[in-house]
Design goal:
Elements (H helix, E strand, L loop, with lengths): L14 E5 L4 H11 L3 E6 L16 H6 L3 E5 L6 H12 L3 E4 L5 H4 L4 H7 L4 E6 L13 H7 L2 H5 L12 H24 L3 E6 H8 L1 H10 L19 E6 L5 E6 L2 H10 L3 H5 L6 H6 L4 H9 L4 H10 L4 E3 L10 H5 L38 H7 L4 H9 L5
Parallel strand pairs: 1-2, 1-4, 2-3, 4-5, 5-6
Antiparallel strand pairs: 7-8, 8-9
Helix pairs in contact: 1-8, 6-9, 8-9
């Protein structure tokens, strides 16, 4: 820990009950847990979060998304006694995360209205497929949201819609939900009242394609998939695309200002291009896209990717090497900036939250929990005696 940092994380003292599985709910819990909240993961005895038992590789997500949490095993479907125990936890908690199917928690008699009667200050985050409306009861998933809200259409070639290469909708909906939770906590400090917040996968994706909705409103023209829009013209820049180096590696170069163009030309000795009046501002470079990128590609092909990177870095030109996710483990910036959290997954260091503060430092306080690992510990903190807990275990209310 650096000397200018305090030891306290900003959400220390906040208690969160997580009813979540796979990615969306655990992502919301992770954001809060990494920032210091005591996130208690409520899992079904013997089964737990579905991601615990997924095939090798996929199950590693559990370790990534559930660090810094505690797990207790309560059979909420099994008995009224189990549900009463959950309400006892709610009475002394601040936030509940519900990531189960529409109506599942309500069917158990544990919906927001019931919880709010137990604890009027509870903030309830429901991560669902849709916000309230005609489709809210429809079973829904990340990939379905990408298909139905235009993102897959924009990502793949026409006729070949393509989901993004990560579960971005699950994580995005979780992040927006957590932002709303933090706002609700701020509001609760004044009103002393909690609230229910719903974050929808579908609406999250619609928000992301908002730029294309705005473009349609302005032009009246139907949306065109990204692969059909040539690199560069997507964002209105003359040079804004991938180029291949002499070693076959690819580097994305973005020249987004006249200053970039001048430094680029000087760095690579392109005096003829700098002197060409057809290229002295971005609109002209865009108009020259029929031939300019091909000329630049010829020049870039003269250099190995490492030298290209060094030259572009020196000239302060926006650039990025094309990388696979697994190559990031050795990324010098991520390693130098201490952006990895070492977990019990050997050789697979998951990433920290993508934020940095001068007041606190993020890290691993506890690895992802075993199923029910903290059941007795947590229940004792909520006031149950050892005999009480033994009795609940004997009746299989807890695992």
């Amino acid at each position: 820990m650096r000397g200018d940092m305090t030891s306290a994380l900003p959400l220390e003292g906040l208690r969160v009950l997580e009813l979540g599985h796979i990615i969306a709910g655990p992502s919301a819990g992770l954001l809060l847990a990494d920032l210091g909240a005591d996130v208690i993961k409520i899992e079904r005895p013997g089964e737990g979060d579905q991601s615990r038992g997924m095939p090798a590789g996929t199950s590693a997500n559990f370790h990534f998304l559930n660090r810094n949490k505690r797990s207790i095993a309560i059979d909420l479907k099994g008995s009224e006694e189990a549900r009463a125990l959950f309400l006892r936890l709610v009475a002394a908690s601040d936030v509940v995360i519900d990531n189960f199917a529409h109506g599942a928690v309500e069917a158990l008699g544990l919906g927001y209205d019931v919880l709010a009667r137990t604890n009027p200050g509870i903030i309830y985050l429901a991560l669902k497929g849709f916000l309230p409306g005609p489709h809210e009861a429809r079973p829904f998933l990340d990939e379905l949201a990408q298909m139905s809200a235009g993102l897959a259409f924009m990502t793949g070639p026409r006729g070949q819609p393509l989901r993004a290469g990560a579960s971005i909708v699950d994580v995005g909906a979780a992040a927006y939900g957590v932002i709303a939770v933090l706002a609700a906590l701020h509001q609760r400090a004044e009103t002393k009242r909690g609230q229910k917040i719903t974050s929808g996968l579908f609406e999250t994706t619609v928000f992301w394609v908002g730029q294309w909705l705005a473009q349609y409103a302005a032009t009246g023209q139907p949306s065109v998939p990204m692969p059909e829009i040539r690199q560069g013209t997507r964002m209105g820049w003359g040079i804004y695309q991938l180029f291949t180096a002499s070693d076959g590696e690819q580097v994305f170069i973005g020249i987004t200002s006249n200053a970039h163009w001048e430094r680029f030309g000087k760095e690579f000795g392109l005096a003829d291009l700098l002197a060409d009046e057809r290229l002295n501002d971005n609109s002209k470079r865009v108009a020259a896209r029929a031939w300019l990128p091909a000329r630049v590609a010829e020049e870039m092909l003269k250099y190995p990717s490492t030298e290209l990177a060094e030259r572009l870095e020196r000239a302060k030109i926006p650039f990025a090497p094309l990388r696979r996710p697994d190559q990031l483990v050795d990324d010098p910036h991520l390693n130098a900036s201490d952006q990895w959290v070492m977990t019990p997954l050997p050789g697979r260091p998951p990433a920290k939250l993508p934020i940095r503060s001068t007041a606190f430092e993020l890290g691993l306080r506890r690895p992802a929990p075993q199923l029910g690992e903290h059941t007795r510990e947590v229940l004792q903190e909520f006031g149950l005696s050892k005999d009480d807990i033994d009795a609940l275990a004997s009746r299989r209310v807890i695992g």
